[in-house]
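Why does this matter for the project? Reviewers at the last site visit asked to see concrete outputs rather than summary tables. In response, this paragraph embeds two records directly. Each consists of the residue sequence and, immediately after it, the corresponding structure tokens. Nothing has been edited or filtered.
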Amino acid sequence: HLMKDVMAMAIQALFRGRAARRRQVDLKYHTTAVIVIQCHFRRRKARRFVLKGLLALREKRQKQWGELVERLHADLLDEPRVEIHVASLNYGETARLMRPRYQLEQAQHLARVLRAVDDNVHVVYVSPMELPEDVVDYYRRLLSLGEAGSGDPAETPRQSRIGRGARNPFGETSDDVLPGGAFTVVVPELSDRFPSSAPLAQVALCSPACVKRLRYLAHSSNKAPVLIPGVSSGWAEKQLALLLNTPLLGPDPAVASLYATRSGAKRVLHAADVSVPSGAHDIYDEEDLIIALAKLIAGRLDVQRWRFATDADNGKSGRAFLDVASLDVVADLRAEKRKLTQLDIVRGEAAWCHPDVQTLARRKLLRALRLALPLHCVVALPGQEVGSNWAEFAHLITQNGCVVEAEPANVVGRCAVHALLNDECTVQSTQDIVLDEAATSTLVATHPASKAPRKALEGATKSVGNALRALGGCPATYFTVEYVVFETDEGLRLWATELEVGLTRLAAGHALHICVAGCDDRRATYTLLPQLSGPGIEATSFATFFKLCRKHGLAFDVEKRRGPVVALVDSLASGVVGACVEGLTLRDALRLSLDFLKFIRTKLDASHLIHREARPEDRDVEFVRFALERILKEEDSKNS
């Protein structure tokens, strides 16, 4: 019996062990399955929760955005307000990386602080770099110009209507009470940690202390706040406006991305029914460019020059020019056209437009253009000298797209019209402009515009403003339209060539004129020099620069409202300044501008050029001098 009991116990132990192990395996399997099911369920639940929260946040922000747009539709710009200026240049990454002085270009909008000359406006300027106290004090004295002091803002007493210190970005000081006509400079605390190619709006958005300070300044008084972006507002400006609960004086970023391209700008200009250059857009391949150019040249043999510009960033990434006079095939086609016109008496020049004739002409052009473009195109890329670099430009065409436009012959001049689109389109100022050799930046601007009738400029600009409103997403904004004026057999003609949505540097420079002139008279004359670069400026201290200006009689005369007023960017360390030269007449302003340039070339630059190699930006002063001399010669020929 004892053996039977032992055996029974062994059998039971074996059975129970196997049963226990089987139950353990089953339990582990079911537990793992339960964990997997629970994880999957919780993941889906969390995803639904997050998506629901994001949808609610999106709806909340969309509702908030709609309320901000409604607040902008009200008479916001006619009442006391706080203007928050974030002059961010929202170019594409390629254009930003190609521009070695991108951060400095954003800083050149510092003249916006002079909009505080209006006692109902307090300007909060977000700067991409730390500003020295001398520069801030200089602009404070400019605001007090005409109330006290001598003819030079550098000597005007420090007491002015804007009260105590205008700059303390993050500290809560007595400056926090916003006085009328004051300005405050805010510098994002993380600006030195971002690359120099980062847009200012994104840097400010990622700087918590900066956002907190801006929110406080926007709502610490009973004035209505408004956020004024740079050219082509982007997603960062919209997010910043929502965080600050401040209306954005600009288009919806989803719509602004269309206006920022040259193709989108041409669509707006076409919708406005204004004359534009002949051309083609939405080109994204070199072969497509050659085909489109062959069609254009075959149909417009009278055009001497064609311009190619990258579609993105409104052509800031690069431009190229082709003079067809250097192509033998164009000369042959022109001879064939004259011969065909003489043979076909009935149709005349219309015979050249026959489809069969056009097809043959395009075939000849296609063969010739594939070889001619790399050899005869003049390419202008940011940060590089103008030359032949077709391979790099062709790569940009693939990345950003391209637009082809005709350059008119017998150009009389170019004009820029700055306007504000609100309940109605209001023209702020008109200027005659002279572009650089790449046609990407303005060398000289003179006020008022005289190359074309003011009524024609205003009428065309108001049509563009109405088209912007009709296309939607743009309730109120500043915008600038550039025109080219040229002569034809029928008289003067006007083509709209550029559209920039936002407060441009030239429009901000007009605020400098209003500040020093004391009024906004459309008949007042001044010369605006947006950018002057030179090694002598870089090597001169702030106090020495203004001392030399006074010594050579280049101080601004408050009583006569005549003379140059310098637009500073920093404490001259960058070697870049601007100037607004007020004159009694346009000839007077031009002569004073030439004197100011002569002072920079002879008294500042000459002694420094021998110590280092000349850089491409050092030629800015020479280009500006040539442009001023040409304008002055035209003015002398008019009066003679």
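We now turn to the second protein, recorded in exactly the same manner.
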Amino acid sequence: MAVTYLPERMKGSAYVLDPNQDMCYAGNVTICDTHAVSRFFFWNLTNPLEVLAGTQPPELKEVGPFVMQGGKEKKSEITFSGNGDSVVSFIATSYASWDPTSFCETCNLNDKIISFNPGYYALIRKFGSEENFVHSLTAKVVATLVERISEVFRSFVEQGNAPKHIEEAVHAGRNAVHAIAVAQWGNASPLQGASVADLAPDLWPHGKPEFASYASGLTAGDGDTVGLDPSEANIVYRILTEDPTGISVLRMLARSSLELAEDLSVSETKAELIRGYIGVHLRKGYNLNAVESMVGPFLGPESSGIFVRRTVEQWLMGYFDPLLSPRYRTSDPRYFSRFITKNFLATDLQPETYVERVPDDSIPRDQWPGVGATPWVLATGMDNPSRTLDVLESTLGDVTIPNGTYTYTSTGRSIKVAGKKVANAVYPEVKRKGLNAETVAWFDFGNSLDLARPVRLKYADDYEEVHSDVKFHKFQVHPDELIPCPTSRKNCDYNSRYHGVWDLTDHRMVPMTFTMPHGHRADPRMFGFINISDHACPFRPDANAHEMEWDVLQQTGNVVGMKLRYQNNFEIKRTDMFYPNLWKPDPISPADISAREGTLRDGIYLPIAWVDISWRVPASKVADIARAIADVKGAILLYALGIPPICFLLISYSVIVLYIRRQIRRGKSDCNAGRRANASESFGTIRSENVSSPSTDIELSDAEMARVPKSFSTHRKSLFAAPSWSGMESDEESVKAPTVLVNLRDVQKPY
């Protein structure tokens, strides 16, 4: 019984994502507690002016923690598919509430933090340089200049000193005045070759706005010969202003004079003049002024630039950037810049304050994780329990990551999406083979925190006894995953150049690296300005506070807790126009790995904040686990202590029964032997001449006596006093007993 029952009692059912058993997947939309607590620690830049001037390296001060608790996850568009519902897909959004009681003593959400602005850097990187970005504003600048020329003409009419044709155009309406303003911009004919700046100089502090005036000044000729006729002016104006992103202007500037002339339907001479008007006249004047106006004053409350100052709440919930935000509608989730967390406030889930955080199709799907909505595709394990919670597709989507394969452009290596969902995996190998079994997770934590690589975990030879019967075993990142290239050939695939540092540049808007907080287990030379041995160094790596850990229940292989502790470090280097003196390490410096590395690197890596997102199954679940373990242990104890005496009793009973049966059988055998002896004696005295019976007077002839066995000759008992032979057929001795044949028909009876 123990051999068959106990293993089944301990075996249990494999964990799978079954909508009939897991309430978090039972429906199209679900909301479940994650029990996550998020702690945010900022690195406040205390000397931004000196860093910009290049006179000092960055000086950082740690501020925090700022805490959000009561984590919840909303799953939307839950869909099961595949053979036997083997695949589930859904959109995950995360929510939490502020926990001011857990803030540091002097911490407040209105505290100001100065740090790096990744949005600005991403914008410049998109255009290739600050100069290109300035050129990209040409569309807006030219449209604004023509509109201001229209306003000047209207003011002339209001003042009563406008030429008749301008007065007629203004009275004719908006389209007419716009057309005459374009003509003034192209050839200055409405003012007889004069510039509007000549008539109202205070309105044009950066020079004459018209192309005609610029061209005339360069050629010292008449505006009519180098200006644009009405048809040309309309074509060039339309081409310059039709693309609000300014990308088409950059392409235009990159083309040859002949190609540009063909595109604009003008002569090569005019094409070159147009290039100069955009690339020199507007860039140095109106475009540059437009950028400076948009960026705002240094560290202003709503300014942009490479460094910005915002409140803690703005850093965490999103802030307005004058260079980025106006590119989107105010209702677009991209309107606010968020680079630290994508958590939403739990009030967004309340009916009276509900806000839908899953984007619509106007936003490309690969951008959804960046605005806090992560599309997951996971294995349910319904067809194969060993695959439960395997990540099947990139959260960025198949368009960005074709066939679920990341390509590292820096190394040319392609990496297939593979491994368990790192935040809440199930490792059946741990259950089957023990704590040293192979455990591989796909390092994508959602909300754009996608490290684009599988990572092995390793048992840390440590555990926490959360209950007298329950132990949570600690796993950490395998040390081999932190070894840089070329010591680790495998990590060369990921462009890993520093120990403990994962380079994410190939899949991010800006160059950046991922480390544990304070650079724990990372080579500090990567930062470019950190001297870990200096007592003034802000980094103080501590394994207890900064190590990433996973709690695993060995009996099932389930991850029952996690401490995700990470720090994103952004590359900062000098720019071509606005920040040309930004501090950088010396080309050959003790802070560099080698002279070659120092020569190649011309920037530093600066963190904005570090984050600790921790969760663990609640006490009620620990109690459930303890009861289950106690139940199994009780069954083991029951059978360990109960089966031996039970087996002894059964064996004793069997021995007694066998003994009794043996004795009964032996008694029968003795009884039968006695009966045979009595039967033999009952023949009495048998003589060789005849046999007589005093009671019957039967006499046997010599022939009949010859048939009587000799063994009966000594017996004295009467033949007819012999007992019956029935019931003795089973005895072995009965087989050997003699058979006596008596022919009663020949017996003579006297009467």
